[in-house]
Design a protein that fits this description.
single chain; alpha/beta; two-stranded parallel sheet; Rossmann fold; seven-stranded parallel beta sheet; about 20% strand
Length: about 290
């Protein structure tokens, strides 16, 4: 079995770690020849996006295709690159997964959203994700491809958590009363994708997140406790002097339901809250 990834990064690497021990081979697209050596070190077969013959061969060989690259002003670069090659190669992978964001739901003032909720993106990035989802699902229907969409909140894991900011002294505990966020450990994301690969369904849309939406300030305080550090002082959101990107993040307040993914994919997060996830990261660091 072979997985082809368009946009090999943090999330795709976690999926590769899960699939390779099961006998899967993983390929990933590259744009620069210099990236070949980086992927070779990880045992990932590089596929040049500019080499049409190489790309078509990789697509014919692949049972699963994962697209993680974010959309740009022209839409999804993965769609622009892969769909013509799929058509020419007459390739029909069993599963195509597109990683989107819960930002497509916009702000819900702390209310719950499900996959059936109205899309109300309020940022340019969120609106582009709405368009990319639509385009992938339409291509799936038009070409008979089994396309699934995964809406993700903030992703954390080893090397990408509050621990790094706390250790560097850059962590802040920003407080905005009543505001909560969902999140997911990268290994739980990989498990959800693997569960979908085992049960492909054309047009499937899934929220993958943990069970406990909560304020970011609570997560930072708990991470500090695990490290034996005092929590950073609370900073009111209005006084935080955030970047435009961070302000967009704090402009949305919602709770994301994962009930449908649990029911259909038979998936359960191993880290149902940030507490289990952070503790596992720290334990893994101690064992290295």
């Amino acid at each position: 079995m072979r997985l082809l990834v368009f946009g090999y990064g943090f999330s795709a690497r976690a999926l590769a770690r899960r699939l390779v021990p099961l006998g899967w081979k993983v390929s990933a697209t590259i744009r620069r020849p210099a990236d070949r050596a980086r992927l070779d070190v990880e045992g990932i077969r590089p596929v040049g996006v500019g080499n049409r013959r190489e790309l078509e061969r990789a697509l014919r060989d692949a049972q699963a295709v994962l697209v993680t690259a974010p959309p740009d002003a022209q839409g999804c670069p993965g769609l622009r690159t892969l769909v013509p090659a799929l058509a020419t190669a007459k390739a029909f992978p069993d599963w195509i997964g597109y990683l989107s964001t819960t930002g497509v739901y916009g702000d819900r003032h702390g209310g719950w959203v499900t996959e059936r909720s109205r899309l109300a993106a309020q940022s340019l990035e969120g609106a582009r994700r709405v368009g990319a989802e639509r385009d992938w699902l339409e291509v799936g229907r038009g070409m008979g491809l089994t396309v699934q969409v995964f809406r993700l909140p903030g992703i954390y894991g080893h090397g990408r958590s509050g621990f790094e900011r706390l250790r560097s002294g850059q962590a802040r505990r920003i407080v905005s009363p009543g505001q909560v966020f969902s999140r997911i450990h990268v290994d739980d994301l990989a498990a959800g994708l693997a569960a979908s690969i085992a049960r492909p369904r054309a047009g499937g849309i899934y929220n993958l997140c943990d069970d406990e939406p909560c304020p970011n300030s609570e997560v930072i305080a708990y991470a500090a406790e695990l490290l034996g550090l005092p929590p950073p002082p609370a900073v009111p959101l209005a006084e935080a002097d955030l970047s435009p990107a961070a302000l967009r993040f704090y402009a949305e307040n919602k709770r994301v339901s994962n009930a449908f993914a649990k029911a259909e994919l038979r998936w359960r997060p191993a880290y149902p809250s940030y507490r289990e996830g952070l503790a596992a990261i720290l334990a893994a660091e101690a064992s290295i």
